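User: Hi! I'm working on a homework problem where we have to compare a predicted structure to a textbook description. Could you give me the structure for the chain below?
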Amino acid sequence: MEVQITKDKKEIVVTLIGRLDTPASQEVAEAMEPVKKEAAGTIILDCSKMTYISSSGLRIFLGLRKAAAEKGGKIIVRNISDDIRSVFMMTGFLNLFEIE
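Assistant: Happy to help. Predicted structure tokens:
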């Protein structure tokens, strides 16, 4: 799993590449810590290159959502595949996040 983070004045874009499974989740969670600290703005989670998400990965998304809510920011999830959309639908995440 690879995480690419880019920032500009208006937003932070986090590109997730590969499988966000349980073994990768610890590394991804650590990579997200600086993003959580800057969660007062808009955070874009670009999932166009993410092929799988486990429950551990879903917890990371929830942690970012909580950090953004506490700081007045927002999370936008972009470009999810049909398989990941299905997971989001079954878990209720489609209602928790703005999906583009």
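For your comparison, note the following. The chain has one domain: 2-99. The chain has a mean pLDDT of 95. Good luck with the assignment!
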